[in-house]
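Task: sequence design from structure.
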């Protein structure tokens, strides 16, 4: 029987929820039935080491190699880079969506098409993977996977419509994400469906038995939060405020945070200004957070928005009690007063 040809496209494999979900999915595919290509738009992420050996990771496109100075590029690439830099200064985009739009408008003509024809091509994530699959890939079936509450309005809603129009299926990771996106593009509801983020309980249990690089404190209260260091979506301002309140009430505990992001400098300033250096501990990123999950006393999620809440699912798999804010998709997993 001829194998199906699949292509997955993702921005990178840094240590984050969508990237972890994709690596888990790749570990569960039957490679007797499928040939799988993986196109990364940026390389060097922590989760690349977990991609199954059966997956063919495609080489970086030419413009990416030019940016890394692995090639000299050509005049068109140099002009595209200058144009992108100027547009960022002039437009001053405030969101990742706007920045991705400007990037694609400026440099997409410098990114070569994928020459292969696939049975199915999957854009595993919003923005650049979506643009790439529509404009650069030939496939019998194109699928967009959206792992967040995807806010699109005004210019971004209008500009991204042509990309989502081109997909045969759009997969959302929660009912809340589904309803929000349906409100953005009501006419696309018929090709939308819901599938939660993918987890592999056996693998999580196995990885949790490893030794944590920074050991949690035995016989003490250890709180854990795993999320991108972000204020608006992940609510780390509330995390720090809660930590200070508990410390000021005389509780003895350690609060560990795994993640990285643009809010880190402000968090470090807050930690120093309030004397929380020995209480709130920023661990950075790790490819294996599960020993921290396994040994924490309590898992806390302070998000304002989540597409699904993968870290909550992982805490539940390892039987850790969870305290969470009341965000959009939380009721897919949590029932107040019961779990």
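Answer:
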């Amino acid at each position: 029987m001829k194998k199906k040809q699949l292509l997955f496209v993702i921005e990178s494999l840094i240590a984050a929820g969508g990237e972890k979900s994709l690596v888990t999915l790749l570990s569960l595919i039957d490679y007797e039935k499928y040939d799988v290509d993986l196109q990364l738009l940026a390389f060097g992420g922590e989760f690349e080491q977990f991609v199954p050996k059966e997956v063919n990771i495609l080489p970086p496109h030419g413009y990416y190699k030019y940016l890394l100075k692995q090639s000299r590029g050509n005049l068109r690439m140099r002009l595209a880079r200058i144009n992108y830099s100027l547009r960022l200064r002039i437009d001053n985009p405030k969101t990742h969506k706007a920045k991705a739009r400007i990037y694609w408008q400026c440099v997409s003509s410098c990114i070569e098409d994928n020459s292969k024809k696939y049975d199915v091509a999957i854009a595993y994530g919003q923005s650049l993977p979506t643009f790439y699959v529509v404009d650069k890939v030939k496939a019998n079936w194109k699928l967009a996977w959206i792992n967040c509450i995807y806010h699109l309005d005004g210019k971004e809603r209008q500009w991204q419509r042509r990309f989502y129009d081109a997909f045969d299926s759009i997969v959302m990771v929660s009912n809340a994400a589904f309803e929000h996106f349906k409100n953005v593009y009501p006419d696309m509801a018929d090709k939308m469906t819901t599938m939660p983020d993918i987890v592999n309980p056996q693998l999580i249990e196995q990885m949790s038995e490893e030794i944590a690089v920074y050991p949690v404190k035995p016989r003490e209260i250890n709180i854990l939060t795993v999320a991108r260091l972000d204020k608006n979506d992940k609510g780390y301002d509330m995390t720090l405020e809660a930590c200070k309140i508990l410390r000021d009430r005389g509780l003895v505990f350690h609060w560990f945070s795994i993640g990285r992001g643009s809010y880190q400098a402000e968090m470090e300033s807050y930690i120093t200004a309030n004397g929380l250096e020995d209480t709130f501990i920023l661990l950075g990123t790790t490819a294996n957070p599960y020993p921290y999950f396994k040994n924490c006393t309590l898992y806390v999620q302070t998000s304002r928005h989540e597409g699904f809440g993968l870290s909550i699912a992982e805490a539940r798999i390892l039987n850790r009690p969870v305290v969470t804010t009341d965000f959009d998709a939380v009721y897919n997993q949590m029932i107040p007063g019961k779990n």
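The mean pLDDT is 91.
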